[in-house]
Specification:
The chain is of the alpha+beta class and about 120 residues long. The chain is built from five helices and four strands; from the N terminus they run ααββββααα. The chain has one domain. It has helices spanning about 5-10, 20-25, 85-95, 100-105, 115-120, and strands at about 40-45, 50-55, 60-65, 80-85. The protein is globular.
Length: about 120
């Protein structure tokens, strides 16, 4: 999956303006809730004219909005249910509840571990 497709997908259920999304990122200091990485640049994606919050000037690492309680598990699309995550933490959390990601962060599990490998290796 390309990063661009992931970025677009991460906003698919947001029924609000880009300026409101930007304000949400700004309110959270352009910082990932989980690993605390911070966006170093804001770039406009040419394909769909959306903003991408890039980390360490690396276009394959960027901030996204994620649902604390996943939509697939009954979570709402309201801003109270959102948090800022980098795409790496977002992919690791997948459609699991926020507590899953907090467990990963609390145990300093590196980004290289996927949800599947964590389960297979007995972390949960």
């Amino acid at each position: 999956m390309s990063n661009e497709m992931f970025f677009v997908k991460s906003y698919a259920n947001l029924h609000t303006s880009q300026s409101k999304r930007h304000s949400f990122f700004e309110k959270h200091d352009f910082t990932c809730f989980a690993c605390k990485c911070k966006a170093s640049a804001v770039k406009t994606m040419a394909s769909n004219n959306t903003l991408q919050y890039v980390i360490n000037d690396n276009p394959s690492w960027f901030l996204t909005l994620d649902h604390k309680h996943p939509r697939s598990k009954g979570g709402s699309g309201r801003f109270e249910n959102f948090l800022v995550l980098c795409n790496k933490c977002n992919q690791r959390k997948a459609n699991k509840p926020l507590e899953y990601l907090l467990h990963i962060v609390a145990n300093n599990i590196p980004h290289m571990y996927s949800a599947t490998s964590l389960y297979n290796d007995g972390w949960f």
